[in-house]
Amino acid sequence: MKYILVTGGVISGIGKGIIASSIGTILKSCGLRVTAIKIDPYINIDAGTFSPYEHGEVFVLNDGGEVDLDLGNYERFLDINLYKDNNITTGKIYQHVINKERHGDYLGKTVQVVPHITDAVQEWVMNQAKVPVDDDKKEPQICVIELGGTIGDIEGMPFVEAFRQFQFKAKRENFCNIHVSLVPQPNATGEQKTKPTQNSVRALRGLGLSPDLIVCRSAKPIEMAVKEKISMFCHVEPEQVIFIHDVSSTYRVPILLEEQGIIKYFKQRLNLPIDDQPSDLLMKWKKMACRYERLLKVCSIALVGKYTKLSDCYASVFKALEHSALAINYKLDLMYIDSTELERSTEAENSVKYHQAWHKLCKADGILVPGGFGIRGTEGKLQAISWARTKKKPFLGVCLGMQLAVVEFARNCLNWEDANSTEFDPDTKKPVVIDMPEHNPGDMGGTMRLGKRRTVFKTENSVLRKLYGDEMFVEERHRHRYEVNPELTHCFEEKGLKFVGHDTEGNRMEIIELENHPYFVGVQFHPEFSSRPMKPSPPYLGLLLAATGTLNAYLQRGCKLSP
User: Fold this and answer.
1) How many domains is the chain partitioned into structurally?
2) Under a CB-based contact definition with an 8 Å cutoff, are residues 42 and 155 in contact?
3) How far apart are CA 131 and CA 447, in angstroms?
4) Residue 209: exposed, middle, or buried by beta-carbon count in 10 A (0-12, 13-18, 19+)?
5) Which residues, 6 or more positions from 352, have their beta carbon under 8 angstroms from its beta carbon?
6) What is the pTM of this model?
7) Which position among 100, 158, 271, 496 has the lowest Cβ density within 10 Å, counted as fewest Cβ atoms?
8) Is residue 7 part of a domain?
């Protein structure tokens, strides 16, 4: 097993996740089996109870793990399926060690950060690195490990110490450290500054880790003189300094790394049994990146949610839309609309914001209402859904978006004015959305219906079934507490809102489709989590096809994309 540790310096959010994913993609293109681990030094057990404004979206895995969004990057780039234990947190490690101490596993010894916490980290990494993540179920050969935060953070210290020890346990030819740093360019001088990188590498060395590669992030391409300066002051060869500037799409990053000789370096440094040239997989990435940059036709989608100030809150949704747009040769114009700004109360408080939000919604080619929790902004989402339904605008509702589509239909088509979800009004007379029977209202963490579940189509006359390749069932990832009330579904079906997909027992409503509408679809699951750059998610692809007016032609071709 070869281990590649990716650390970061200067600032967090520098792009370590994309660089770690890109390195994995390059090694996979050389024919190696690659897995990935993300270490988050926070004390939470997992990401499940975070607000999206804390660390971006919560990504859900097949096994129901609620994890950091970087695991989504790994899955998309490497086309693998990870597990909850591929996300290590301080909380998980301490819980593991404390449980062992309570069981008496330490035989009365004083339990300390060194060696007990650091040993637990190393043991976890070695065990998880062996778990197969590809469809062929073979043990991986390379494990890319990303250490969250920046070098010098107090909460990350035990992990840095663990890897300082681990480099000797694994042996030099099996362990490599990549340090990602920032090269800022102040507007006042326009000069690219290397001092932050020098200080960051010095801090890393002071903690016992020496970088094998220094990846320098910058806004613009870095000059050769800067590369030579970093090489000299950071005690590495010039070819060990890699530059990654801001690019038009993240698909470019693996190509930039490969162009700077990273395959040859890894082959020598880790004694890898590979050719110097990448395979067809990286050629596909190159073609995809070039195609992305040459797109001319634009499709605009309005994303109506309440976490719109930070794009990472809907990272997987954005990627799923982007994958679908790229598949049909369109450039995606994603317009984020804060759902509260569509509400009547905003018109009274700030009429400019209100009219701007409605202007965006009206000019969009399609409307998407993603998942979420809580009552804030729901009235605005209901307004957007009503607009999509009545104006025949292509619409996709995901999780809460589907539930609100049912509420909107109940209020405006069934004339149940007080129809609501028990999440927002526990005493509603028409509870069209109810909480799940197995939901435990005690602890918040891990109380939802989570992970991959099967959805069975109950009719052949379904747009989504055709988009999924006419399969009898699909398996997608879930993350929700509330369900459409199965006792009331017959009322909706009589009026044209069809529940075309159920769970295996037939009790839980998974997919809705509206008759006599170009594309009005709701799904209880989160299809964005399984979207891949070369395998777009069918519900999102359907939305883009409908928004560009090409859905019927696509279905008539037998769900084949035109060249």
Assistant:
1) 2
2) yes
3) 26
4) buried
5) none
6) 0.91
7) 271
8) yes
